[in-house]
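We modelled each protein-ligand pair independently. The example shown here corresponds to the zinc ion entry; the chain sequence is given first, followed by the ligand as SMILES.
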Amino acid sequence: MSTRAACSPPSFTISCQGCGEAVPRRPWTWKHSCGLPLDVAVHVDKDRIVACRGGDAGGLKRFAPVLPLANLPDTAIGDTPILTEEIEGVRVSFKLEYLNPGGSFKDRGAYVAVARCAEMGFDSIVVDSSGNAGIAMARMGLRLGIGVDVFLPEWTPDGKKRLLRLLGARLHECTGDRMAVHTAALEASGEGAAYVGHWWNPYFAHGVKTMAYEAVEQMPTVDYVVAPVGAGTVLLGLHTGFSELAAAGLLPKMPRLIAAQAAGFAPVCAELGVTRPNAEKSLLADGIAIVDPPRRQQIAGAVRETHGFVVVVEDVEISHALKSLVAMGYIVEPTSAVAFAATLTAIRDGRIPKDSSVLVPLTGTGMKVLEELTEVVSD
Ligand SMILES: [Zn+2]
């Protein structure tokens, strides 16, 4: 293929991850009629991946040959540094995703999901996250001139509401649980406004996959990847990226994916048939405290396919890992420490052997939750 061909937008298809049925790109659907999530498959090959390297474009814009978008907006998202620390005989490479402009890896997913909505002609989107995803979507909406309606529980901390308002989001506070918030968001979406909840959005993973593309340029080998798993967007995005690289023959070996879950919120364990003693529910890992994520089977499938495993950590381990990270100078939110806590556990029980090279994305900034952070660290 010529360089010119490799630089044109890639073709892509959308199908149901459960029943496999193909669905058209238009009209916008966020869920298959059978009730399961949809996936976007982008047709990527070696030429397209090589075309992403070098060049003048910065941030995610350089990944135009492998992203399901016709036009990529300018952005400072991506290009996050990696720092490798020698920890108990293992090379642990932290990818500083919390340095993205909105403070988390979710900027990557929001970039593709919101830009795709713009291409489809939507001038407003509806989301039901008050956390990092809501902030990332609001920020992208602001950049692209798309109105963002955020549905959130009324008990959402004031600081998050203020940040969302600062980014121009319209806030809708709902009574009831997370499901009630989801239902209200769906009712508000429709013809002019697309629902882009990140648990379901099929474009989101393609933004997140760029993390894997960057990591293979930054690390000579990746033996293991440890990702915090709630809805699974980090793990599934990385799985998409590494799978595309492997299929193109650009990866010496597929890394093993380790799902790091918080005690009390470990549906991937159940999906993989791993039983573990009852533990107290985590209060620290609020970013991944999800009992029934819609993509749970897909997450378990990615772990199984790469011969990975799941590690469940308790708050005492998360708190210890967070203190270590802050002591090393990484100012991250408690949820981000789950992956490092799981890494330490797997090193100590021998499941990650000495001399391995491990990629650990540090997903979200601690700056948004300073009060909580200082409470845990000074405890
Ligand atoms: Zn289906």
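Residues 16, 18-19, 21, 32, 34, 36 surround zinc ion (CB under 6 Å).
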